Amino acid sequence: MTLGPVKYQFEYDERIRCAFIGAGGHSFRNVYPALQYAPVDLVAVCDINAERAADYARLFGAAAHYADYRVMLAEQRPTAVFIVTSYNADGRVQATDIAADCLAAGAHVWMEKPTAASVAEIRELQRLSDKTERFVMTGVKKVFTPAMEKTKQILDSAEFGGARSISVRYPQGLPAERDQPSMVGFLDHIYHPGAVLNYLMGPVERLSYEWDSVSGGSVTNLRFRSGAVGTMHLAAGSPVTSPLERVEVVGRDAAVVIDNSVELTYYRPGGRLPYGRSGSYIVEDNAAPLRWRPEFSLGQLYNKNLFYLGYVPEILHFCESVLTETPPQKGKLADSLAIMRLFEAYRFHPEGEIITLEESP
Q1: Strands (E), 48-135
Q2: pTM for the model
Q3: What is the pLDDT of residues 163-190, one digit of tens each?
Q4: What is the end-to-end Cα distance of the chain in Å, rounded?
Q5: Residue 360 has pLDDT above 90, yes or no
Q6: Are 166 and 220 spatial neighbours (Cβ–Cβ below 8 Å)?
Q7: Collapsed DSSP state (helix, strand, coil) of residue 4
């Protein structure tokens, strides 16, 4: 989905009756502000800190605030609910049970990642979603960035020749202890590279990883069900001054590279430089690389992190799904299930073992 001219919230003729559960720092910076550009009528805010809920309701235009989301659901009867919460002491995701209650109350759900802490919990949400005929979408912003959506378009083109290998680099450590509380940080961040792998390459068939006990970094070899291969380098220990992340996909005489989610280079097929005879590295114009990146100077919406990091596009996708009563195409529970299978492979299997992932029915 390429964003055309963006509407502001007040310009929509039809808006969705929505509630928001959670009033923390992340939602303040990145999720509530994104609602400015979506067909949302925010009627209520809920947080266990009632004073914070009141502040957020006033700041973001909601008429009501609550400290108990169950009371809010009963009184406000929202069509859709946004959930951005944290973790329980045992490492479980608070939003998982909240989402189940929202489904039971008849509301569609957008929830920040992670969706849950286990494959079993996601399967239960799938069951409840089917039963209530309401859907759950998870905020996997990486696959909604303009750079990633353009990459998917390139990979699907006949010119690219099919995605045959991928390399993903992301700075995340894998802890020595693999109990659920110790794995919270890993669970929180595996959704980013995991979503990218699933979106661009499809389901993983098998994998094996090697782990560095000093930094917590790891390198994973991947085989996808399509037959393609890949690596995931979880580069724990990398400095904050270095590039955060990189994705490279190779096709047939073609490749795409995304740096830091915003700089996209497409190395097109057709360039030929005879070895030992080429006095210039310049190829023909129709085979020269294409490069896109924002200029970060103008007061354009595409220069806002809400857009180039994918927050507004994913929320617009959710809202369009609600308005059209069509399940989301990205961030759906099946995508979360694929990511959770990756998570459980690391949690329950040692390094060096070849791990075959279950195929969804």
Answers
A1: 64-66, 80-83, 108-112
A2: 0.95
A3: 999 999 999 999 999 999 999 999 999 9
A4: 28
A5: no
A6: no
A7: coil
